[in-house]
Amino acid sequence: MTLLVVQALNGVQLGLLLFLIAAGLTLVFGVMDFINLAHGVQYMLGAYLGVAFAGLTGSFWLGLLLASVVAGVTGIALERLVFRHLYGRSHLDQVLATFGVILTLNEAVRVLWGTAPLQMPMPDALSGSFQLMEGLRYPVYRVALIVAGLLVAVGLAWAVNCTRAGMLIRAGASNAAMVSALGVDIGRLFTLVFGIGAMLAGFAGVMAAPLVSVEPSMGDNLLILAFVVIVIGGVGAIRGAFVAALMVGLVDTLGRTMVTDAFKAALGASAAARVGPAVASMLIYLVMAAVLAIRPAGLFPAARDA
Amino acid sequence: MNRLVPLLAFAALAAVPFIPFGREGGYVLLLVSRVMVFALAAISLDLLLGGGGMVSFGHAAYLAIGAYAVAILDANDVSEAWAVLAAALGAAALFAAGTGAVALRTRGVNFIMITLAFAQMVYFAAGSLAAYGGDDGYSLIARTELFGWPVLKGRGFYATAFVLLLAGYLLCRMLVASRFGRVLRAIRQNRQRVQAMGFNPFTVQLTAMVIAGMLCAVAGVLLANLSEFASPAYATWQRSGDLLIMVILGGAGSLHGALLGAAFVVLLEEALGRLTEHWRLIFGPLLVLSVLYFRGGLAGIGAKRD
């Protein structure tokens, strides 16, 4: 039971992390109709920048702030230099060009920081653990991550639903040409959306850094998960991304313990140890295939005028 | 142009074993063999992409299926070509039919992502085959033989790969020119009209996926023999991305473009890899630039624009 609670909390935490990344991805996709494979790189870059800035300034918080800002600026620079020219091109061209950006930036990080994984020290205020219930201690930092994720989710929902910029973003997602015809500088709107997305991914990278090893490939793995999230949630929908992110986080984390346990009961311990992890890794893809088989447009597809 | 380029390309491939490269001879044969293996995989992907407009981001799964057919039979002391081919083709056809039936319910970006998800499942499944090396991969005991005759050793490999590539190319060319190919292209342009004319788009597209998957599995069989190794890494999404790059750089839809693209990518990787270990730092920007400024691909050079 205690294990289940811990796993559920870890699942929520992974889900919120995924949401931070998927939110930017789904906004960019919804508004610009642009598939950005390089979004995972922003997350990875955020983690590296966080380590670098935290080392320079000696403070986790300054590192978090600086890294998020620089990640956002990098995203805007990439948008101006490369991605802007790919709007309106086929999805295939976008996939290839952003794949090229991944190769370049991953390799650049290898050149700058080396291939060995880096460690990010946890901030003192949030290290340690506390008593969650009888016989169960839970790390403070993971709770902080959950809280931060929820705050960002609420903030984003408010920004998209209640501000003028958010209104334009929603309008852009349903019909970009019309928004542009009504006198909105659509180019600036796109840059804004891109910058926000990149900053959120960078922020997620710094927040995740103390819990994982910081290495060049860390973005690739999360990118695929984030795509699973936005496809399940319905492309372009923030609410869908939120629900799907929690779903994927929980399925993945709980699946890893429960599937192995289930196989242990059915097949015996040694066979379960072999088959369990593989099936658990596949679980979210099975969920995705099942969702798409029943609802080909995802759970909450954004309303879109052709 | 459409006849001359492929004719020249295949003539060049046929001539390579007879050119005296001196001490480098073995290395050149190996490198060009690798080109041919990936060319076969890329041509099969072009059948889907150029022919049917189906952007499969999981085609590398079939490379792994072919390779593991070799590995699993090898571990059970079977290296007879007919048995290996039957297993590889059967497994690929089953996988393509099963996953295709689900994937074809979706369109656009969701199709890209669901094919990616299925390839990820193959990747994790291959990693879980503890009896066949698990994540580390499996080293072959013996190469595949035809009636006990070592057709895939030394120059024999080159000759076999050449024949299979030529046969695969001619088969795809025939398919594209046939009524089946015309219907496939028509679905891409106007699905409803094809339906109104009494064809079932789903069946036609699924058939194309099965054929392309089986062809790519043959490339997988060759790849496993070439490196005497089968690994889950054959099914990574980066590998699927590589195949897409080959097809697009070569020029989607022309089939021989996939051949040129495969040659270009494999040889460029090799050349840059000799230059610096950080060759991706050059390859990545090249890829971005080629997508931005070099539409139509290699096969489009000199060809009339329609």
TrEMBL record, chain A:
Keyword terms of this UniProt record: Amino-acid transport, Cell membrane, Membrane, Transmembrane, Transmembrane helix, Transport
GO molecular function per UniProt: transmembrane transporter activity
Membrane-related topology note: Multi-pass membrane protein
InterPro entries, alphabetized: ABC_transp_permease, BCAA_transport_permease
Main localisation: membrane
Statement: the UniProt record of this protein carries the keyword Repressor: no
Residue ranges crossing the lipid bilayer per the database entry: 12-30, 37-54, 60-83, 95-113, 140-160, 190-212, 224-251, 271-294
Pfam family, one: BPD_transp_2
Protein name: Branched-chain amino acid ABC transporter permease
Organism the protein comes from: Limobrevibacterium gyesilva
UniProtKB/TrEMBL annotation, chain B:
Cell location: Cell membrane
Alphabetic keyword roster: Cell membrane, Membrane, Transmembrane, Transmembrane helix
Coiled coil feature spans: none
Xref: InterPro entries: ABC_transp_permease, LivM-like
Main localization of the protein described in the UniProt heading: membrane
The keyword Transmembrane helix belongs to this UniProt entry's keyword annotation: yes
GO molecular function: branched-chain amino acid transmembrane transporter activity
Residues passing through the membrane, by range: 27-49, 56-75, 81-104, 111-132, 156-176, 197-223, 243-268, 280-303
GO cellular component: plasma membrane
Annotated membrane topology: Multi-pass membrane protein
Record-given protein name: Branched-chain amino acid ABC transporter permease
Organism expressing this protein natively: Limobrevibacterium gyesilva
